[in-house]
Amino acid sequence: MSARLLTHLRHVDLAVPDYDKQLDFYAGVWGLTKVAEDSGISFLAAEGSPEQYVVRLRKAEEKRLDLVSYGAGSTEDVDTLAEQLLAGGVQLISQPGKIDTHGGGYGFRFFDVDGRTIEVSADVEARQHRRIEEKEAIPVRLSHVVLNSPDLDKTREWYETHLGFRLSDTLSSPHMGEVMHFMRISDQHHSMALAKGPHASLHHVSFEMRGLDEYMRGSGRVIRAGFKKVWGPGRHLAGDNTFTYFLDPHGNTVEYTTELELLDEDTWHPHVYDFSQPEVADQWGTANPMNELIAKESFNDVDRGCFIAPPV
């Protein structure tokens, strides 16, 4: 396993055909702030986060996941990681260097084992952010991203070997075997999870709210605005976090969450939870039951961007 050089999740970048509709959703009812826009590409920040942006939207002919971006502690760590990946046979898209995008920084891009574009960067300028107030039901920060993979263990091993992720917990069922691995790069229970799916694609992107009241208020706002609620509100056992899942205008699943578990990494041992038990999916018992239709929503469309680097 590689030494841990990654520090946190920075942003998730999406490409969509109906750019205006997608931008209206994220900068409107979802509660992000548009901080920059230039010819069919926009950068959306969470008001409580020092990250320059947490979502990037790009107008494109085909829907795809453009990239997932992680922070590193220093430019030296970026260089070290690039050298390790090259030595490990990982295909680099770019060499470490100055990043010419909103907030700048120093970083590079590469393909993961499933062909997703991953970016790692350091020295990105911090954004002026603020404390989210009581009853202010907008995202504080990006919480985590979940990725579908047709070969769950192969993808898990790749992230452990090359990027220093550690396994926190696993979901399994008697009929399907292992269906999800929760992976961490800090004491946060997961900044990424890997889900068993028929193809490589985005499972969901999760946004942290200030607290339970704000989480419920935000969920209610999105429901009242007429967007499809897929699952929730409820509280998972793995990670102990709340969840309400919605579909954005292009069928990507997005989540409001709060209170994701922080672990003592020195003493933590991964659990295998039986996902067929109702209290594993939802401790509260308030969410609509998980079924095949809900699961299929999260499979998403086949990602057309695998092993094809985004143009920007």
Automatic annotation (TrEMBL):
UniProt-listed InterPro entries: Glyas_Bleomycin-R_OHBP_Dase (IPR029068), Glyas_Fos-R_dOase_dom (IPR004360), MMCE/EMCE_epimerase (IPR051785), Orange_dom (IPR003650), VOC_core (IPR037523)
Keyword set, alphabetical order: Metal-binding
All residue ranges annotated as the VOC domain in the record: 8-123, 141-259
Orange domain: residues covered: 1-9
Protein's organism: Streptomyces xiangluensis
Name by which UniProt lists this protein: VOC family protein
CDD domains named among the record's database cross-references: BphC5-RrK37_N_like (cd08362)
Keyword tRNA-binding appears in the UniProt entry: no
